[in-house]
Please model this.
Amino acid sequence: MKELTEKMRQRISCHLIHITLSNPRTKGGVKKIVIRPVKLKGKLCYQKAAYEEKKVFHENLTEEECKERLEALLEEFRQVEMLTETERLTALISKKGKATVKIKPVACKTAERDLSHNRKKQYLIPEGKPIPYLVDLGVMTKEGAIVHSRYDKFRQINRFLEFIEDILPELPKDHPVRILDFGCGKSYLTFAMYDYLHDRKGYQVEMIGLDLKTDVMERCNQLAKKYGYEHLRFETGDIAAYEDGHSIDMVVTLHACDTATDYALFKAVSWGAKVILSVPCCQHELNGKIFCEELSPIMDYGLLKERFAALLTDGMREKLLEEQGYQVQILEFIDMEHTPKNILIRAVYTGKKAKEEAVNQAAALTNGHGTLERLLRNGEDR
Model:
């Protein structure tokens, strides 16, 4: 171990590209650590990123601090990769602390390296290349530049495509992927999904966008025809009343207001959708119906009660989906500074159901007033 530590210390300099420590010795806590050189206010330092299950913690170290901590960090992991501009060092560390080290020469293009702390993000939709639907929807200019006032929308679209990329292994490959987008509005994300899945990833897809505004849906159908999106169509309709005689593989619902989200989730469950992506909005239903004496410090204040009711609504939705056999994650869609409606529910059907006790504990706070709870427990689920 001391020999490995010394070899790595010798290679910590501005020529370092990254150090990755993985395969932790203990379960839970930090899964991976990545160290890379960055420039802050013109000075070189080493940024340490510690990855936990759903969080990343950053710390900036001097060169000496980085070298001093190295030995202690190596004791926590079994696998090491250290890449410099000229060499790649890899090491496997046994349970007894014996390290097997390999060093191979490499040739990295130093001209392409960027040591700035705020490096330009590489989006799934690249900047500088005009995308027809983004030009027509006012997000891009005809030259492919992002319209300054629409940059938040551009980031939102890319963030959503990252969620799509994560669930690609869950999508069927033996038949066209059928996707339903409830409350699609002007359909920025609907067009982005179709373009990404069909044109860039090569999936056979059949997509339907649904919204209440007839004129908007007519415009979207015109655009879909213009782009040659043969398997994308838009319909006018209400989420609660919508019926589809075919199987649905993925249901998307973004900012469906209040109980419209519940009806969308219920439809997704009843159709047996493999994937659900939902960003709820305006959860008012429980605000005037919940009461809990132990939570009076929250319930006695309107703003706090409103926010608590929204969180409780989404938490209950998660538990109900788990009860139906979905693996559920609650994720941040976009930064809070852009909108407070930034929670995304991502659910993938696995068949493994949550314990009934956990669902009942959550239901005790809602007193049976949640729409999704009533829909699923009236014998209408699958």
Summary: The first strand starts at residue 16 and ends at 24. The first helix runs from residue 2 to 10.
